[in-house]
Amino acid sequence: MDVALRLADEYALDRAWSWAFPAGSLSANVATSAPTVKDSLSALALSIARLGHQGPEVFPISFTSPSSPLATLQDASIFPRDSVVRQLTSLFFIAYGGSFLLYWSISTLAYYFLFDRRLEHHPRFLKNQVRKEIVLSMKAMPAMAGLIVPWFVGEVRGATLLYDTLEEYGGGWFKGTALEGYGHWAYLTFSMVTFMAFTDWCIYWIHRWLHIPFLYKRLHKPHHRWLVPTPFSALAFHPVDGYAQSLPYHVIPYILPINKYVYFGMFLVVNLWTILIHDGDMINGHYLQKFINSPAHHTLHHLYFTCNYGQYFTWADKYGGSYRPPREDLDPIHDAVKNMDRKRKLAEKEAKQALREQNKQYADPSIEKAHESDSGYEGSEAELDNKPAVKVSHIRTASKDESHDIRRRR
């Protein structure tokens, strides 16, 4: 994370920290004022700001030239780059922002291009499940970032065994043999394999322990609300649950020398894999499924709970007796398609029933006669057409009688 922090400092955070906490705002007050309570608090604040400061050589690598305007901002804040307070704060926002961007970008792409949307019709797919997954993920992310930041600070401050250049480890391997000179690459490969094996083995047991009833009820149960998961469920869990399963990735650089750039790349792959194994894909029959803990294996874990706890490989589950191989008949898409067909038939039945009721209504002669005689509202054209005829007839009759009376009088 030190490379990410340096990049963030030089291109964004130096400016932000110098704007929020400009240099001299507290030190000048302490140097020129009488010792008052306010000045004592200022001195305390300055001490906190520079907590852990060890001088400018803590971050020797610079991505900008000394003449760059960005370089002048390095000392423009009361919080130097190597202040523990600044590192904790900066790394929190880097971790939170990185997980936020990764979640929304990769989960969205996986949801629309990999996830079979027919699974949303599965009988055990919750109402508004995608929205609920996103809401829980948004709540978990900042807490997760806060929990893992101390590990990143230790990494940045040199407490790990991460190294910069390829030549630092493995130089003595194969010395005096035809493979001399390839020891650095051999050690790099060894460290990568060890990283994968160590983290996979540890996560298997951490994940399995989280299914112990006491821990499951308090920590892991929220993640298993999604019996048919989508890519948006990858981070939808209790923060402590997610933190516990991420611990092996943070512990290993403290016990194993590994190239920092390789470590960063593998850490990124870990996060991508966490999202992709939740895409509900149940492709069967490929040779690698015997060894790789694929989305098909993890889908079965969500459906049946007590199988396939591993992260990358199946070897830990086979060793622990919890392996369940994917099979065509276990694919949840079958139940989803059946439920879709049931809903379609139900909708067709209701539509036919409504049509029969409508036809029955119009086939009844009394109803049809009522429809013809009743216009539906008072003062209709039919009523107006009848009323004048009656009035005219009455007037004409009256006029006839009146003329007869007149003639008789005469």
Automatic annotation (TrEMBL):
It holds the Pfam family FA_hydroxylase. Its main location: membrane. The chain crosses the membrane at residues 91-114, 134-153, 185-206, 226-246, 258-277. GO terms for cellular component: membrane. GO terms for biological process: lipid biosynthetic process. The keyword Electron transport does not apply. Residues 193-321 form the Fatty acid hydroxylase domain. One of its GO terms (molecular function) is oxidoreductase activity. Residues 398-410 have a biased composition (Basic and acidic residues). It is found in: Membrane. It comes from the Eukaryota. Residues 351-410 are annotated as: Disordered. Keywords: Membrane, Transmembrane, Transmembrane helix. PANTHER family: STEROL DESATURASE. This is Fatty acid hydroxylase domain-containing protein. It comes from Naganishia liquefaciens.
